[in-house]
Hints:
alpha/beta; seven-stranded mixed sheet
Amino acid sequence: MDSPLLLIAILGLPALVGHWLLFAAVANRGQAAGLAVGLDHVVTATHWLLLPAVPAAFLITERPWTYEFAAAVRAGDFCPVWGTYFAVCYATLLVTVGERLIRAVVSDQIPLTTATRLAVERPHAPPEPDRARHPLALIARLPLNESGTFEVHEYPIGIAGLADRWNGLRIAHLGDLHVTGDVGLNYFRRVVEVTNGLRPDLIVVSGDLLDREELLDAFVELVAPLEAPLGVAFVFGNHDLRHGPDVTRERLREAGWTHVGGRAEVFQDGDDTLILAGDERPWFGGPPQTSPADASALRVLVSHTPDNFSAACRAGYDLVLSGHNHGGQVRLPGLGAVYSPSLTGTRYAGGLYRRGRTALHVTRGLSAEIPLRFRCPAEVAVLTLGRSEAAL
């Protein structure tokens, strides 16, 4: 390896990918830890600062393009600090690739071939006038960016022992609206039209609603037309903690929405019961309290993060509806999602999963604070419940 360029290609490029995956893994766990808003911003800023700074420091201190560096590597006279870090990066790359291969064979994810794609929507939605020249609005309009596209999926969900009353129940699942105006409000108007057109029995919104408090009035007016026989229920996510949750909660209640965070809403039809509970941990409160006598009911949990999936399984829920991870937003060929702010990394980035009797749907969401999507369009989902022997 006398050529510095060949040395960089053989040693440097895999280390650079491993470096990126390492920092992404740390950022994913940090953003899932329920940190205070200020500290969460520090973690995010540190991630994006160090991600290029570490490779830059290596280039400045080691000058790997020189023949002197190549000679030092051949002689084994490589800086031990950088040598150790390179080893960590290689290990991260190997572990990540190995984990993805294992996950492809042994996983609790249900193949998306079981879902039906009903439509692909690309509404004309220029940014709001006050955001037209904002950098994030410009990102939303980049070529190949799918931030203005959403798909409509129908998922059959098998529930063991499902009562006749709830057989065929249709739940529309929306999440991660992140309304900023960078993707114009007309986009969300179309989301509302499409959702109502699916004729769901219940609409569930799994958090991260609004990212600009000054758009609260427009947001409430925008989503007020959502309607279903059993109503519209919602929980808050981590971004809602940043933007006046008490005021937002009250305004949505006035619009007819039901907040189920930390509590349960009970729907009774004769002897058949549907319990819809909300878990907003780690950002708000504690787990919802339900009676042990409710064990025979259909039990649905709305949790902004799928990190509460294990607790939901232990509590005996039949279905969990989550978001937060946006499907990864950017999915690379062969590698899939890299960023997914979860304690389990990208395991529950988006899709349908099952563990025992409990099914989990993680929506890819509808937007994001940073409106950048590649090979991961947004999603409106309708879940149709059926008895387990007739569905998934």
